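User: Could you go from structure to sequence for me? I need the amino acid at each position, not a summary. Structure tokens:
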């Protein structure tokens, strides 16, 4: 259900697309493929309330909070 969501910052800047959900011991980690034109490899986002602002499945958008060291 989450695969394919657009991942955007609170400012509205598109970061990329969620391509994988990795289950870890403490919390899931979302793997995001950067938007075309953005440098770098995949971005790993921890699925925690301090980072994930909202998930809108109807509109296929995940809003995240940019935190130091995240990407």
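Assistant: Here is the amino acid at each position, in order:
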């Amino acid at each position: 259900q989450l695969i394919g969501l657009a991942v955007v910052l609170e400012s509205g800047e598109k970061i990329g697309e969620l391509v994988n959900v990795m289950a870890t011991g403490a919390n899931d980690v979302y793997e995001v493929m950067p938007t075309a034109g953005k440098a770098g490899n995949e971005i790993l986002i921890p699925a925690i309330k301090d980072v994930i602002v909202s998930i809108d499945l109807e509109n296929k958008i995940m809003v995240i909070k940019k935190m130091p060291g995240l990407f």
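One structural detail worth keeping in mind: The radius of gyration is 11 Å.
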